[in-house]
Amino acid sequence: MRRASSHFLRIGSKPQHPVKAVAVTINYDLNPNFDEIVSPCGGCRQVLVEYEHKFGNNITIYMVGKNERVYVVRSMKQLMPMSFSGDVLADFGKK
Ligand SMILES: [Zn+2]
Q1: pTM above the 0.85 mark?
Q2: Domain that holds residue 32
Protein backbone atom coordinates (compact mmCIF):
# COMPACT_ATOMS: atom_id res chain seq x y z
CA MET A 1 0.00 0.00 0.00
CA ARG A 2 1.37 3.41 -0.92
CA ARG A 3 1.32 6.04 1.72
CA ALA A 4 0.16 9.51 0.83
CA SER A 5 2.30 11.26 3.39
CA SER A 6 5.23 10.97 5.71
CA HIS A 7 5.37 12.45 9.15
CA PHE A 8 7.81 14.83 10.76
CA LEU A 9 7.65 12.61 13.84
CA ARG A 10 9.61 9.95 11.97
CA ILE A 11 12.79 11.99 11.96
CA GLY A 12 15.02 9.92 14.20
CA SER A 13 17.20 12.50 15.87
CA LYS A 14 16.22 15.67 17.61
CA PRO A 15 17.59 18.78 15.95
CA GLN A 16 20.47 20.52 17.66
CA HIS A 17 19.69 23.77 15.87
CA PRO A 18 16.45 25.74 15.67
CA VAL A 19 13.87 24.63 13.14
CA LYS A 20 12.91 27.78 11.25
CA ALA A 21 10.36 26.50 8.74
CA VAL A 22 8.49 23.35 7.77
CA ALA A 23 6.52 22.60 4.61
CA VAL A 24 3.55 20.24 4.74
CA THR A 25 1.88 18.74 1.72
CA ILE A 26 0.56 15.46 0.33
CA ASN A 27 0.80 13.71 -3.01
CA TYR A 28 -2.32 15.11 -4.67
CA ASP A 29 -1.80 12.82 -7.67
CA LEU A 30 -2.93 9.86 -5.54
CA ASN A 31 -6.43 11.34 -5.21
CA PRO A 32 -7.15 13.92 -7.94
CA ASN A 33 -10.54 14.73 -6.38
CA PHE A 34 -9.00 15.83 -3.08
CA ASP A 35 -8.59 19.59 -3.01
CA GLU A 36 -8.06 20.56 0.63
CA ILE A 37 -4.90 22.02 2.11
CA VAL A 38 -3.48 19.69 4.74
CA SER A 39 -1.98 20.77 8.03
CA PRO A 40 0.40 18.98 10.41
CA CYS A 41 -1.14 16.09 12.41
CA GLY A 42 -1.53 16.39 16.16
CA GLY A 43 1.67 14.49 16.94
CA CYS A 44 3.77 16.63 14.62
CA ARG A 45 2.17 19.78 16.03
CA GLN A 46 3.24 18.82 19.56
CA VAL A 47 6.81 18.10 18.39
CA LEU A 48 6.98 21.45 16.61
CA VAL A 49 5.59 23.30 19.65
CA GLU A 50 8.30 21.70 21.79
CA TYR A 51 10.99 22.80 19.31
CA GLU A 52 9.66 26.34 19.50
CA HIS A 53 9.90 26.20 23.29
CA LYS A 54 13.34 24.56 23.24
CA PHE A 55 14.97 27.07 20.92
CA GLY A 56 12.82 30.11 21.66
CA ASN A 57 12.02 30.90 18.06
CA ASN A 58 8.89 30.80 15.95
CA ILE A 59 8.58 28.14 13.26
CA THR A 60 6.92 29.13 10.00
CA ILE A 61 4.60 26.42 8.63
CA TYR A 62 3.94 26.34 4.89
CA MET A 63 0.89 24.22 4.02
CA VAL A 64 1.20 23.61 0.32
CA GLY A 65 -1.98 22.70 -1.49
CA LYS A 66 -3.05 21.81 -4.97
CA ASN A 67 -2.34 24.27 -7.79
CA GLU A 68 0.38 26.08 -5.81
CA ARG A 69 -1.99 27.34 -3.11
CA VAL A 70 -0.01 27.98 0.06
CA TYR A 71 -1.34 28.75 3.52
CA VAL A 72 1.27 30.15 5.89
CA VAL A 73 1.33 30.48 9.67
CA ARG A 74 4.27 32.19 11.35
CA SER A 75 4.22 30.29 14.63
CA MET A 76 2.91 27.04 16.07
CA LYS A 77 1.00 29.23 18.54
CA GLN A 78 -1.41 29.92 15.68
CA LEU A 79 -2.03 26.21 15.09
CA MET A 80 -2.00 25.22 18.77
CA PRO A 81 -3.13 28.02 21.06
CA MET A 82 -2.85 27.11 24.76
CA SER A 83 -0.60 24.19 23.88
CA PHE A 84 1.11 21.99 26.46
CA SER A 85 4.77 22.55 27.27
CA GLY A 86 6.96 20.37 29.45
CA ASP A 87 8.35 23.61 30.92
CA VAL A 88 5.19 23.75 33.04
CA LEU A 89 6.32 20.62 34.89
CA ALA A 90 9.93 21.70 35.41
CA ASP A 91 9.41 22.95 38.96
CA PHE A 92 7.12 20.14 40.10
CA GLY A 93 8.73 17.37 42.13
CA LYS A 94 11.65 19.58 43.22
CA LYS A 95 12.10 20.38 46.88
ZN1 LIG B 1 2.35 14.04 11.52
Answers
A1: no
A2: 4-8+15-64
